[in-house]
Design a protein that fits this description.
Helix content: 55-70%
Number of helices: 19
Structural class: mainly alpha
Low-confidence stretches: 1-7
Shape: globular
Number of strands: 0
Radius of gyration: 22 Å
Strand content: under 5%
Mean pLDDT: 88
Largest sheet: none
Order of helices and strands: HHHHHHHHHHHHHHHHHHH
């Protein structure tokens, strides 16, 4: 494992190793920048149309947004504490609960999720850039999409390879530029809001509200929990725990809440816009803009999406190293970048259906990640001491080789969870197999779209670990 932090334009030397005390610096409030920059994307506006697609009213959607976004990022805040206490990446710290080699299953799931998310964000940035260029008359069709993909991928992979210092500085720039241009966008399109149409939206059922809430929970914070400690690990051990939780939650939640509420207003005002967003979530938002703001809009769209993808590719590389890839951190990020480009090419040029593929990806991987998150939250809550850092890398150490109960909880939680969710894409039609057996109306019933499996997996992981894991944690902490 390499040692030392690099300069901003040098490749970071740290991989999945423990960060030395001499390299740990800063204050919890600095966590605001990476988390805000990663979540200020105009994709938050498109979530307004996605949320109203559940058939709920504006007020119901706002309530679902507040609960889903804030609670999900609060989970990230709690997991970020592990980074401060253990000085290692999130999925290395997960070994304390699952065992050094037993942690392979949740790490593989985490890697799939982060690679999936960076691919989703690259897809959106590519589509948005091509749409704006087409409107400006600068090109169109396949050649424009290819150029857009190459530019976006170069930005994301380049930052992921260079590492932590560049990412932290880049996120500060992205935060400022994107926030200013997003406010300008909102001012320009505010006249498109039809308040009568917003107020006329009919209220949805309880099942529909729960479905929207779970979708937002999964689409926001649950998509980040497996990377939440990757940035707090550089903070000093003396940093405030409340500060770590608070700044992570505040920084991550602020932009999505504002953007989603504004997106709800736009989507409720125009059925055509809601339909267009399903095919090109970012590009469709440019339809109401004057020509002179299209280039700034392309900048804000791409920067916001790149900001999220950069954090994802950094964390996916760390997850790949945790799985045992014998390579430096920058090489792992490069491998993930290649996979990201291949996935983007498939969806942009061959799949055609973005929203269905996106929702299927979110919910399907959201179930096992929720189960892992429940285990991890309970494990963190039960610990009274900092992690024994050397033992995180030694299967003969206090954390063991494989702890069967947490592993079984993730497997069983995933099996139960997939039985309680449904998706529209054909290759996921097998899901929802428990809905009929549990009297929830089957795959066509009212609860089918609520995706209760995500909540079930999260609660199962949390409750079972709290009930069964206390003795294991006490043995670990008592060991000399």
């Amino acid at each position: 494992m390499a040692e030392g932090r690099a300069g901003t334009l040098q490749i970071e030397g740290n991989g999945i190793n423990v960060i030395a005390d001499a390299e740990r610096k800063g204050r919890p409030r600095q966590l605001f920048w990476p988390w805000f920059g990663a979540n200020v994307s105009v994709l938050g506006l498109s979530y307004g149309a996605f949320t109203l697609g559940f058939g709920i009213s504006f007020v119901q959607a706002v309530i679902a947004a507040i609960v889903g976004i804030v609670v999900s990022f609060l989970l990230c805040g709690f997991i970020a504490l592990a980074g401060q206490r253990g000085s290692a990446p999130t999925m290395v710290l997960s070994r304390a609960a699952f065992g050094v080699r037993g942690n392979g299953l949740p790490t593989a799931i985490s890697w799939l999720l982060t690679v999936g998310w960076e691919t989703v964000l690259t897809i959106l940035a590519t589509l948005a850039t091509a749409t704006v260029f087409d409107r400006l008359g600068w090109g169109g069709g396949t050649p424009t999409l290819i150029v857009a993909l190459l530019v976006v991928a170069a930005l994301i992979v380049g930052a992921g390879v260079l590492g932590f210092d560049l990412i932290m500085r880049l996120q500060t720039v992205i935060t400022v530029v994107t926030a200013v241009l997003t406010v300008v966008y909102m001012v320009l399109v505010a006249g498109q809001i039809n308040w009568s149409a917003v107020g006329a939206l009919p209220a949805g059922s309880t099942e529909q509200v729960v479905g929207a809430l779970v979708f937002l929970l999964t689409g926001f914070g649950l998509g980040w929990v497996n990377a939440a400690a990757d940035y707090s690990r550089y903070l000093p051990r003396s940093a405030s725990s409340r500060g770590v939780i608070g700044w992570t939650t505040f920084g991550a939640s602020l932009a999505p809440l504002v953007l989603l509420v504004f997106g709800l207003l736009l989507a409720a005002s125009s059925a055509d816009l809601s339909t267009a967003i399903a095919g090109d979530p970012i590009g469709a938002l440019a339809a109401a803009l004057p020509t002179w703001f299209l280039v700034p809009f392309a900048l804000v769209a791409v920067l916001g999406l790149v900001g999220g993808a950069v954090l994802d590719i950094y964390s996916s590389g760390l997850a790949l190293l945790t799985l045992g890839l014998p390579a430096p951190r920058w090489a792992a990020a490069l491998v993930d970048g290649v996979i990201m480009v291949i996935g983007t090419v498939y969806v942009v040029f061959f799949a055609g259906d973005f929203l269905g593929q996106f929702t299927g990806f979110l919910i399907t991987l959201g179930v096992p990640v929720a189960a892992w998150c429940g285990v991890m939250l309970a494990d963190i809550a039960m610990r009274r001491r900092d992690y024994a850092e050397a033992d995180l890398y030694d299967r003969r150490g206090r954390y063991g080789d494989a702890n069967p109960v947490p592993i079984a909880v993730v497997v069983i939680g995933t099996a139960i969870g997939w039985g309680l969710v449904t998706n529209t894409v054909a290759w996921l039609g097998w899901q929802g197999y428990l809905l009929d057996a549990l009297g929830l109306g089957g795959r066509q019933g009212a609860w089918a779209g609520a995706n209760l499996g995500v909540l079930a997996a999260l609660l199962l992981g949390l409750v079972v670990t709290l009930l069964t894991g206390r003795a294991r944690v006490r043995r670990q902490e008592a060991r000399a």
